[in-house]
Input
Amino acid sequence: MAVDSKALLAGVGTLYLAFKVLGLLRVLFDVYVRSGINLKKFGAGQGAWAVITGASDGIGKEFAQQLAQKGFNLLLVSRTASKLQTIAEELTAKHGIEVETYAMDFAKGDPEDYLKLATMMQELQIGVLVNNVGTNHDIPTAFVDESDKVIQDIIEVNINSALRMTKLVLPQMVGRRNGLILNLGSFSGLVAAPYLSVYSAGKAFLSTFSQALGHELEGTGVVVEHINTYFVVSSMSKIRRPTWLIPMPKPYVKSVLNKIGVSGGAAIPFGSTPYSGHALANWAIDNLFGIKFWVKQNLAIQKDIRRRALRKREREAAAKRD
Output
């Protein structure tokens, strides 16, 4: 019997479309219905500690507030001692937890700082590590024109800090067979961002590091999760107004903590894109148009941001001259 090629192609097309639709339905189920691992598994309300880097502002500060609310004691690490002290006093008074702080500049990568942190954590039961601290290019800049200092700072803050902090907490987590490591990623690691080349590459590193580490730690009781993040309203993103796609830190962090172990829009092992708008955008990038299209979109966006940033600098310089 002759095979009807048109019918065969139609059948393949139908199966392909059904596969895509099922994938989208899974994402919707994950972000709107499915529950994540309860944080009590990692010691919430039972004396365990959460360590948060970049804890004095934005997403890091919100992680501190929500993890305190869930009953974790906190070790907050960031650059500005006065901000850390204010947050510590507020959370201690509000939630009756213990809060320790350590002020350090991650860009310096000072071994003495990490040694002091190791000493502080030695007697603490670390249940959660949030690798949140990060820095970016001042404005989108071609790699050939970027300063050596900016490049070095991004590598030290976005890559080396995550490696060092993870290495500090892992031995005791593996020893107790329990722990949670959250690595805050970016869509710039999913789709290359021209003119943010070092930042983009650093976030891609964090994604692959999380996948490799997650596989290494399977069966140990330690959960590793790479959180893929689009924009969130913060000083780092320089976005001030929330939209459906760009949330405030509070709902964003809430989605992360409610969806531990749930992939949401992420298609990679040990990855999660839990916030609804981000999850659907992640699914679209993985399933529509192809990666070349999305990189070109990023190129156009970053060029436009650079043009506007340079015009703003020119206006500010002219205003100073006047």
